[in-house]
Amino acid sequence: IRYWYSAGKISFVTAILVVGTLIGAYALLVCERDYSTELWSIKNTTWFTLFTLLLCGYNDMFPESGYGQWVLMVVMLFGVLVLSLAIEVIFGLMSLDEHEQNAVDWITEYEGKEGQKRAATNYLAYWWRYAAFAGETPRQVNMLPEEYQEKKTELYRNAVMHFNEMRRRASDLANMQTAIQDSTAEDLTQAAEYLEEVQSYIDGGVGVAQMSAETEDQLSTIEERQREILLKLEELSAASA
Q1: Spatial contact of 80 and 55, defined as CB atoms under 8 Å apart
Q2: What is the tens place of the pLDDT at every residue in 62-107?
Q3: Burial of 52 (0-12, 13-18, 19+ CB in 10 A)
Q4: Under a CB-based contact definition with an 8 Å cutoff, are residues 119 and 169 in contact?
Q5: How far apart are the first and last CA of the chain?
Q6: Percent of the chain at pLDDT exceeding 90
Q7: Residue pair 237/181 in contact by the 8 Å Cβ criterion
Q8: pLDDT of 209
């Protein structure tokens, strides 16, 4: 069952919904057809079972026999299971896989860097305009003192605003890089643990009489490469700190 569910989740949920509806409708029809033939027709019983699986009522129907009520309870419990699987399938379709998440992270990082560049450019532009403007007098720029002060304040305010935006962008990028490094370190640690398990498995002689020299060289190369990557990550972490 787990294999069928993993192979095609949507098809599996649809199949068990259809099969459960048919089986439940037949069982209810057998239990209730002697009480009301018109009410518990094939059509009404099928729709009632389907809506019950979806935890809804239909046509004010309710089984009168004790067996029918037990069947209805089983149908409702089965409906809870089907809805739980359906919700899991929907959330799985909405979530991103590894490649899509990497693409989103790359786009987010790219937009962050571009935003940081724009903020830095605007900050420098407004700051130089403010510095040049502050070196003049109101008479030199043909402005009243009040207009001159207002213009200078506006340039300074814009420069500070873009400086804060630049700092915020830089902080977001630093946090993103830290998260990426932590995720990479966790993956490498997990890979190292798996490698140790494989090494102990081979050294124990379970299923393998003797490990070849080629396999030993490959494992040594992998271990050396992992150590180099971990050292590089530690240097990057120390530099960012």
Answers
A1: yes
A2: 888 888 889 989 999 999 998 888 888 888 878 777 777 778 878 8
A3: buried
A4: yes
A5: 50
A6: 7
A7: yes
A8: 44
Q: Residue 144: exposed, middle, or buried by beta-carbon count in 10 A (0-12, 13-18, 19+)?
A: exposed
How far is CA 82 from each of CA 11, 175, 219, rounded to the nearest angstrom?
12, 40, 46
pLDDT digits over 176-218, tens only?
777 666 666 666 666 666 666 666 655 655 444 444 555 666 6
DSSP character string of 206-220: SS-SS--HHHHHHHH
Three-state secondary structure of 115-163: HHHHHHHHHHHHHHHHHHHHCCCCCCCCCCHHHHHHHHHHHHHHHHHHH
Separation between Cα atoms, residue 40 and residue 29, nearest integer Å: 6
198 or 27, which is more confident?
Answer: 27
Give the residue ranges of DSSP H helices in the chain: 2-7, 9-32, 42-53, 66-94, 98-134, 145-203, 213-240
**What is the C-alpha to C-alpha distance for residues 159 and 126, in angstroms, rounded to an integer?**
5
